[in-house]
Amino acid sequence: MHRKITFYHLFVFFLTFLSYSFFHAARKTFSNVKSTISEEWTPTFNNETVNITKPYALWNKRHLFENDKDAEIFLGVLDATFLISYAVGLYISGMVGDRLDMRKVLAFGMCSSALSIFIFGCVLEWVHFYNKYVYVIIWVCNGLLQSTGWPTVVAVMGNWFGHTSRGLVLGLWSACASVGNIIGAFMVSSVLDYGYDYAFLFTSSVLFGGGFIILFGLVSTPAEVGLKESSNGEFIKSFSSDTSRTSFIQDNPEVDLTDQADAPLIEDSDIDISEVRVEVKAISFCQALLLPGVILYSLSYAFLKLVNYSFFFWLPFYLVASFNWKATVADKISIWYDVGGIIGGTVAGVISDLCKHRAVVVVPMLILSIPALFIYGNSSGVYSMNAFLMGVTGFFIGGVANLISAAISADLGQQGPIKGNNKALATVTGIVDGTGSVGAAIGQILVPVIQTKLGWKSVFIFFMITMFLTTVCVFPIFIQEIRTICCQYTYRWNIGLQRKSVLEDNIIEQNSDQTESEDIQ
User: Which residues does the UniProt record annotate as the domain Major facilitator superfamily (MFS) profile (predicted)?
Assistant: First the structure.
């Protein structure tokens, strides 16, 4: 079936892209204010690089940590806390999204997350209340609430866009996270000089407003606006008549039809055919987990997201600590990692569409990411060179992360065993992204510890080992796809040889007949 792109497709693409960009812009705030917030949480006399502008006696009564190192470790704990709660929330939000109205779930998550960010960064600072336990509790809530975003937006996009162009469309669309990081970096850098509370206020306000836009504007499925096309280009019809009860009984066990047992089949050609609404059951967590490829891609994404989110959370801090750059400059330069991820995700999506396989693109990019990490880890503090190498690293790491989290997750949630079931996609996406967030949470505990004990060089070695493990997890799928491609080419080659042989036999037979005819004459 030829798929027609409508205004609704473009509008859904734009709204879901915008919503998750706002999520990431708000999430990016914390990573971009780490150096500033570290100064706020430590005594003024322990930080020699900061001009002492606060009243000494007043400030040193309420500081949280004795030195910058302790503050840095706590910032890593907050990152890990956020990601652990985010991972747990993803497993839950995926199943909730498949069972409730995804538009309302997404809008609720955006507005409530904005409120928690506002309390964390603004209210507590304005009332000068500093407490580690309160910070952790609020950040746990923020992680749970932000987890409503990714499974629902991927599920909505999967409902509107089919498999044939999914690599291109979702490869381009998955740039929403990177675009959100860029927007967040610019938003934070524009107001950070006034205080980190203004950064939280700015981004949380934008996220809250985006929630209202989603609530009143998003269309979750084509059926809501009367379109017959589903995510796979098919729709279900039933037979109806004024005098007879009819039913279209499908082989799909996930579909329940009302009064199916006693509904007679009608073979009257005069009956009217109309579309019927059928209730599709959402699959369970275990059913989603056991789908082909889900476990392997989930494990690989755990290792990959560990590295990707370490760049997300720690890149501005690394630039300030290693090269003594100003925080606002580090925030602006760090966007080149996301630029590389946008380009990488789009290119990988297009190539995987052409190949009709994903892992054959993913594995080479993962292998190339290892030398890219080594080179960037030994780069200098020259702005242009650092930004270029950062973009190359983002191309391989962020590009693959975008492809797995969007296009591949959508493929896994609409493959053979559950094809046509649009209430499985959010659950599968939640599993993949949730497992990835578990790995990312572990990384945010390990990165500050490794950096404190061994330095940033060791952190990059740790990243290279992690990318190797990512490649190992995807490699069985890569081998399977290579075998499939080889079988396809072998089959086509054999068919070509058979056709050539038949053609040669026909030519020989024609020549033989012609020779016999000439002999007779």
Answer: 5-482
Domains held by the chain: number: 1
> What kind and span of H or E run contains 66?
none
> 116 Cβ partners below 8 Å, 6+ apart?
138, 141, 142, 145
HSE-CB of 331 using CA atoms within 13 angstroms: 27
Write the CA distances from 511 to 499, 508, 519, 521, integer angstroms.
18, 5, 12, 15
Provide the token pair at 304: 């990959």
Q: Which of helix, strand or coil describes residue 423?
A: coil
pLDDT of the residue at 246: 37
Q: Name the 3-class secondary structure at 239.
A: strand
| Residue 221: predicted pLDDT | 77
Look at residues 192, 139, 154 and name the one whose alpha carbon lies nearest to residue 441.
139
CA quadruple 456, 460, 465, 469: dihedral sign: positive
Residue ranges making up the domain that contains 312: 7-224+282-482
Q: What is the pLDDT of residues 335-387, one digit of tens each?
A: 899 889 888 888 888 888 787 788 888 899 999 999 999 999 888 778 889 88
pLDDT band of 228, cuts 50, 70, 90: low
Q: Residue 520 falls within a domain, yes or no?
A: no
pTM over 0.85: no
Output the pLDDT for position 152: 87
* Distance from C-alpha of 139 to C-alpha of 160, rounded to nearest angstrom: 33
- Chain centroid to CA 466: 19
Rounded to whole angstroms, the Cα distance separating 259 from 13 reads: 38
As a whole number of Å, the CA-based R_g of the chain is 28
**Residue 17 amino acid letter:** F
DSSP category for residue 458: H
481 pLDDT above the threshold of 70: yes
Q: Can you tell me the distance from the alpha carbon of 521 to that of 514, in angstroms, rounded to the nearest whole number?
A: 11
Q: Is 36 within 8 Å of 24 (Cβ atoms)? A: no
Mean pLDDT of the chain: 77
* For helices 7-32 and 68-99, angle between their N-to-C axes, nearest 10 degrees: 160
CATH number (domain holding residue 126): 1.20.1250.20
Q: How far apart are CA 204 and CA 213, in angstroms?
A: 14
User: Residue 165 domain-assigned?
Assistant: yes
CA distances from 133 to 75, 77, 137 (A): 13, 11, 6
493 lies in a domain? Answer: no
